[in-house]
Amino acid sequence: MDYTTIVRTNKGTISTNKPSKVITANKFRDLTDEQKTALTGYQQHMHSHVVGDLSAARKTLFEEGYLYWDNNTKTWKGEKHANDSMDVEFKEIPIGQLISLESQRETALTWAVSRLKALNGLDKVAYGALSVTAIPSKAGEVQTYSTYDGNGRLAMAQLCGKETVPCLVFGSMAQSKTALYFDYTQNKGRRNLKPEVKWINSYIAGNINALKLGDYLKLLDMHIKGDTKLYIPSPKDDWSKPFLNSVAVKYRTVNELMTSSHLSKAGVTAHKLARDLIANAWGNKIKELPQDTFWGLVSLLHTHPVLQDKATDHYQALERYLGWLAGGKTLVEANKDWKNKSTQGLAINSIDGALMILTGLRKFIKSQGIKLPEVRKTDKVTESEAQRLNLNTTVLNTAIKKLELARTKKR
User: Fold this and answer.
1) Over the stretch 90-124, which tens digit does the pLDDT of each residue have?
2) Does the first or last residue of the chain, that is N or C, have fewer Cβ atoms within 10 Å of its Cβ?
3) pTM for the structure as a whole
4) Please, what is the Cα angle at 195 between 192 and 200, to 5 degrees?
């Protein structure tokens, strides 16, 4: 094969088997037009869910020494492929020949039992294949294997009295080398699924709790997408696009509305009104409802019921304030504005969020010269709630100082 070796002055020489010639190149600009086109015009072998700048990714791989130019095929190929010559074998292995990697974590039987109950027994599809390596052995000895990925599933099989289990055998290697791959697969080699992705798959699978949350999302004109290509709920369960005027939210943002003792008590009216206030103010500038702002409004509407009455001066002042804020700021910028130096970068709970919004509303009303009727204590409104709603400066400042102190301690 006719290879071209790329010599990088800042990385050292990248060797190939039989280079026919050597060129000096460590930057994209040093390549020929043909090599540049082949590098950035590459479109093959990328699956449908890949996102990002493919050309930039390929350039990075080239400049870091992970691609070489093949003159025979006029294409760029992977320079560094570890264990390419290794034969990977799929086979059923007797459980007695499987030995847990010494550095593997312990397996709690309560966990194994709960996983078996989750799918009504040992499900072959969910079980998959264990990842093992052959432990070097002498002639005549029974071959044993080190289990470096699947120790928990092995325990499940043992509980069910299985005699053999499906395995992928990745050659023969010492325990120390096997431990390296266990460390990699558990840390850098595996992407963590975000709650949105987990929920979407639970919804599609028909999980009853996920379906209930989906119905509530539809009621509130919201949807969850996360980093998938799906929008749920959607018209006719098509999932390729959301309902018209639906707003994206994170899983936790809406799940807390149903599970949090404080937010759930606010009720669907406050939930929907908070969503509408934000959506009406910012319109199509909303990419995703910010949790702090939304929870804060829900809490504010719950603890101050007068704000849920659209006929009151207080509701109209709040609506005007949000509209004024949206005129010059994105929702993300406004969300940051409601926090001060002590709370920047920290997630705040719903009550904290309500205080932040009230503080901003107080400043707005003062600057606009708006006069609001006083709210008095009733059997539904406590004295402190009335004072906060009346935008009592002393009460609000005391509450904010307590919040700042609590957040500083948490840091």
Assistant:
1) 999 999 999 988 777 788 999 999 999 988 899 99
2) C
3) 0.70
4) 110
Give the containing element (helix H, strand E) for 248.
strand 247-248
What is the C-alpha separation between 304 and 382, in angstroms, rounded? 9
Say if CB 252 and CB 295 are below 8 A apart.
no
Rounded Cα distance, 251 and 265, in Å:
19
> Any idea where the domains of the chain sit in the sequence?
3-78, 88-186, 193-259, 266-410
Percent above pLDDT 70 for the chain:
76
CATH class of domain segment(s) 88-186: alpha beta
Please state the rounded mean pLDDT for residues 115-143: 89
Q: What are the helix and strand counts (H, E) for the chain?
A: 16, 12
In sequence order, the β-bridge partners of residue 24 are 7
* Integer CA distances (angstroms), 261 to 28, 258, 314, in order: 57, 8, 26
Residue closest to 20 by CA, chosen among 52, 80, 88, 68: 68
Structure tokens at 247: 């707003």
Confidence tier at 406 by pLDDT (50, 70, 90): low
Tokens encoding 167: 């395995």
Please tell me which of 45-49, 55-59, 206-210, 235-239 the model is most confident about, judged by mean pLDDT: 206-210
Q: For residues 313 and 371, what is the distance between their CA atoms, to the nearest angstrom?
A: 9
Burial degree of 100 (CB within 10 A; 0-12, 13-18, 19+) = middle
Are 169 and 145 in contact by the 8 Å Cβ rule? The answer is yes
Contact in structure between 317 and 372 (CB atoms under 8 Å): yes
